[in-house]
Amino acid sequence: MNAPIRNLLSIADLDRAAIEQILELTESFAEVGERSIPKVPALRGKTIAWLFYEDSTRTRLSFETAAKRLSADTMNFSVGTSSVKKGESLRDTVNTIEAMGIDGVVVRHGDAGAPHRIAEWVDAAVVNAGDGWNQHPTQSLLDLYTARSRLGDLDGRHLVVVGDIKHSRVARSNVMAFTEMGARVTLVAPRTLLPADLDQWPVGVTHDLDSVIESADICYLLRMQLERQEQAYVPTLREFHTEWGLDTRRSAMLPDHALIMHPGPMNRGVEIDGLVADQPNSVMTQQVTNGVAVRMAVLYVLLGSGLDLVDQRLAVA
Amino acid sequence: MTSTTAIRGGTVIDSAGSRRADVVVGSDGSIIEVGADLKADSSIDATGCVVTPGLVDLHVHLREPGREEAETIETGARGAALGGFTAILAMPNTTPAVDTAAMVNEIRHLGRGTACDVHTSGAITVGRRGEALSPMAEMVRAGVRVFTDDGTGVQDPQLMRTALEYAGSLTHLSGGRAIVLAQHCEVSALSGGGFMHEGSWSSSLGIPGQPAEAEELMVMRDIALSKLTGVRVHFQHMSTAGSVEMIRAAKAAGLPVTAEATTHHFTLTDESCNTYDPVFKVHPPLRTDLDVAAVKEGLADGTIDAIATDHAPHTPEDKELTFAEAPPGMLGLETAFALANSELDLPIEVILALMSWRPAAIAGLDPAHGGPIVAGGAANITVIDPEIRWTISGAAMASRSNNTPYEGRTVRGRVRHTILAGRPVVVDGEALL
Question: Does B165 contact chain A (CB < 8 Å)?
Answer without folding.
Answer: no
